[in-house]
Amino acid sequence: MTLTIAPPGALAHPGAPATAPAVELDAADQARIVAVGTAVPPESYSQAELLDIFRIEDPRIRSVFLNSAIDRRHLTLPPTGADGARVLELQGALLAKHKAQGVDMGVRAVQTALKNAGAALSDIGYLCCVTSTGFLTPGLSALLIRELGIDRHCSRLDIVGMGCNAGLNALNAVAGWARAHPGQLAVMVCAEACSAAYVFDGTMRTSVVNSLFGDGSAAIALVAGETAGSVLPAATGPRIVKFASCIVTDALDAMRYDWDSAQDRFSFFLDPQVPYVVGAHAEPVVDRLLAGTGLRRSDIAHWLVHSGGKKVVDSVMVNLGLTRHDVRHTTGVLRDFGNLSSGSFLFSYERLLQEGVVQPGDYGVLMTMGPGSTLETALVRW
What we know:
This is Type III polyketide synthase. The chain is an alpha+beta fold.
């Protein structure tokens, strides 16, 4: 079955040649998203509660927390010491937290995704794990295979350290595996224990990060080929049409997670100009994504943008001409969970499905942003 991306005569999107032809694609060859599942730690905190817990009195830092467009975040906080204050965790304790939370949340997210897909653990042929909040060898994929009892012959991949954009980098690889193995189930899980990457030193640098990120995991299941019906008869999710990427090499240091000698642990850094760098490159990468499809940005019914922070979302909105309604799931996830790093866009995708407004033939754009500075996009069609 051949799929034509746009009806004859459709105008090209802004920035594309007016004569750009519609792309002909064999829908049977495309990977389809069949289910998603999410998981978070049981404990959640309001921004005001966190300020009190960490005894933050600096009015500048309090303002950063309270004006973040975030209401609550799920976190695994340090234990309380004898003086009632939270203990400053050393790097070893942070890595242990990353491992424990990554496995716990990853297991629950995968189980939920499989349940929603009507699939079993024995159906998984490929497992890709994404994380940037710690380092493990063997990787998270090996730990999840053991914990869940997945077939030990399952193909697997670990993507570590790419940051908030990594969910779409990984999805590209997973979709490729699914296309090469029609009818077999591929699963990607993003497990981010962001509280395992926190440094509390009272500076504005670390406070900006500490005000933003939350813990969470999201898993997504894919299958390609018309034979998918024999395994997943209810597979009705969107097909992944294409991907487009952009790395801003002039801003490689704008977002980074590296060793802080003064703190004797890893620390995350965000340049204040990041929202504007990301926003300025949102239009070119989306234009590249839509190039040759005959689609305009106005033809996109659903925008699922990474919940990178209030200023990041606002900058993307302005540069792409999006409305508050377009990014309602992005801002809702930011409000209720904070920035969940690589899996944020899947939390938004889950909310879109729960809303029940998607119609057959609708197009959607998935967008993630992260260190590099990097923007990743994917075009999907229901």
